[in-house]
Amino acid sequence: MKFIDYPDSDMMMMDLANVLAGELENTLLTHDFASFAVPGGTTPGPIFDVLCAADLDWSRVHVMLTDERWVPETSDRSNTRLLRERLLTNRAAKAVYVPLYADAETPEEKLSELSDALAPELPISVMLLGMGADMHTASIFPGADQLDHALNGDDLLVAMRAPGAPEPRITLSANVLRGAMSRHLVIVGNEKRAALERAQGMLPEEAPIAAILPGTTVHWAES
Ligand SMILES: O=C1O[C@H](COP(=O)(O)O)[C@@H](O)[C@H](O)[C@H]1O
Prior knowledge:
Radius of gyration: 16 Å
Strand content: 15-25%
Number of domains: 1
Shape: globular
Helix content: 25-40%
CATH class: Alpha Beta
Number of strands: 10
Bound molecules: the ligand O=C1O[C@H](COP(=O)(O)O)[C@@H](O)[C@H](O)[C@H]1O
């Protein structure tokens, strides 16, 4: 794991957006398309605001979420909504979007359909992850009903429910996350830094982020 400590989060978001744009550009030099996985939640919005204006051939960038909350796009909790409002806009409006949500009561009903659409996009070319203070990443939560399946199974996508998540989730499995050619984790604040430090001495069953850390570049700013 490589750890980069930034003077402030504005600088971090700007720098990281440029790093991600550079990696996508490099991928497009040698591949027909680049697959790009990003988190939802409260952290990545400012990165998306910069990245969406990057001068890239976005029509060859396939954007997907690392995980989704099983709520319609009209909900404030929808990660898809965040993406549409802040990443898939400006120049990046030309990107191909690979959904992790479809209209159904439960994620299980759409798992096989969404997995089939995801398979041709793998391995992920460039990935950005987030992390909660409880050490979950994507939607792989400590205490989740399908934790072992998400950490150790071969499926691409896993549907799960967890005490720390107010709604059902769908998440890329640890296997898919670890397969990404380039892996970045972005976190802000001392609470998450301390959680990350603790996670390094823990099993993935207690601290799911630990399953993805080897080979990942961590970007951190205090505030
Ligand atoms: O629920 C989620 O949480 C994590 C962390 O979110 P943050 O608000 O603490 O940045 C996020 O990475 C994940 O995509 C999201 O669904």
